[in-house]
Amino acid sequence: MSNSNNSVKYDYLFKIVLAGDSGVGKSSILLRYCSDEFNLEQKMTIGIEFRSHDIEIENSKIKAQVWDTAGNERFRAVTPVYYRGAYGAILVYDITNHNTFQSLQYWLEEIRSRSNNPDVVLMLIGNKCDLKKLRAVPTDEARRFAEENGLSFLETSALDSTNVKLAFQIVLEKIFMNMKEKRELEIDQNIELTHIENSKIKAQVWDTAGNERFRAVTPVYYRGAYGAILVYDITNHNTFQSLQYWLEEIKSRSNNPDVVLMLIGNKCDLKKLRAVPTDEARRFAEENGLPFLETSALDSTNVKLAFQIVLEKIFMNMKEKRELEIDQNIELIRVNQREEEGRKKCC
Ligand SMILES: Nc1nc2c(ncn2[C@@H]2O[C@H](COP(=O)(O)OP(=O)(O)O)[C@@H](O)[C@H]2O)c(=O)[nH]1
Ligand SMILES: [Mg+2]
């Protein structure tokens, strides 16, 4: 597994979202899992927050990136980007409050409709199981709901740690096994950090695993992509002719009508072997509304610039749509990351 950034020490990054009514203990579960702490005075979070926890499955290093809502779940106003690209979702209710159990149907539909991932792994958690005397939701009732909806189910306590680790372990192993079954793990993910307008952006760049030779790239490869870089070889006209195929592949599979596209003619260091005139490529790019650059991975020409262009376009699109809601959330994530770096706990 090749990660270009030496500080990134994992093979796979799985986004997991927490969902459920306010007060059920989502933030406490996050804190327990990622920092092994509990705080009775758990403060309401503002904006989106995520923390990470690393585990190993079958010798692969997995980073679970766990997302927590921001208190805006009180108004059922969780931004769609919260769910997008999630591999797993943990639905939480409070065993002492039946209303929070009744809300589960709403949260389930929210995740299913917004995650963009038909294979999203779902888990149901009945939290606060330490408060036995205050129980309002019988275990059997919850188990029935879980079975009817194909969810794994556990009762947990963020306070005394019961089953919190196990719940995440079940979700992560399921994601891993699903992907392995589909051979989706053959995809190589690289992480690169960059800054745009004082926001720290993590570009997760996916590379195919050689299966593009057979035009057999698994659909999940494209799913949830914010950007796509189409590459041909300036010394090989066939690779240029294939672009139409790849363009349609991306457009039809990315599930994102706003996916930002970029065209790259690579190997521009091999000037003498050129088979695709720059003008011809530029025309194709213009006709299809793609930014265009010639690059050389060998001598570095334009490689960084190409990614920068794509990332800035994604950022600007999102900003325009206020999907970033906006700097407030990013700022918060950044602060949390700094705190975590400082603490050097598990993240
Ligand atoms: N007894 C008990 N209290 C909990 C547990 N988890 C969370 N709480 C408390 O429940 C309240 C709401 O928790 P919080 O994590 O903010 O819930 P969120 O709104 O879903 O993020 C806080 O006062 C927590 O201390 C638990 O497992 N047991
Ligand atoms: Mg919270």
CATH architecture assignment of the largest domain: 3-Layer(aba) Sandwich
Task: Supply the helix-strand structural class.
Answer: alpha/beta
Percent strand equals 15-25%
Q: Helicity, in percent?
A: 25-40%
Cofactors and ligands: guanosine-5'-diphosphate, magnesium ion
The total number of structural domains is 2
What is the radius of gyration computed over CA atoms, rounded to a whole number of angstroms?
Answer: 22 Å
Q: Which ranges are low-confidence, i.e. pLDDT below 50, for 5 or more consecutive residues? A: 1-6, 324-347
Which CATH class of the largest domain applies here?
A: Alpha Beta
Instruction: Specify the CATH homologous superfamily of the largest domain.
Output: P-loop containing nucleotide triphosphate hydrolases
Report the end-to-end length measured between terminal Cα atoms.
20 Å
Topology as H/E string? EHEEEHHEHEHEEEHHEHEHH
Largest sheet: 6 strands, mixed
User: How many DSSP helices?
Assistant: 10
- CATH topology of the largest domain: the name is Rossmann fold
Strand order, largest beta sheet: 2-3-1-4-5-6
How many strand units? 11
Rounded mean pLDDT is: 82
Approximate shape:
elongated
GO molecular function: GTP binding; GTPase activity
InterPro entries: P-loop_NTPase, Rab_GTPases_membrane_traffic, Small_GTP-bd, Small_GTPase
Pfam family, one: Ras
Family: Belongs to the small GTPase superfamily. Rab family.
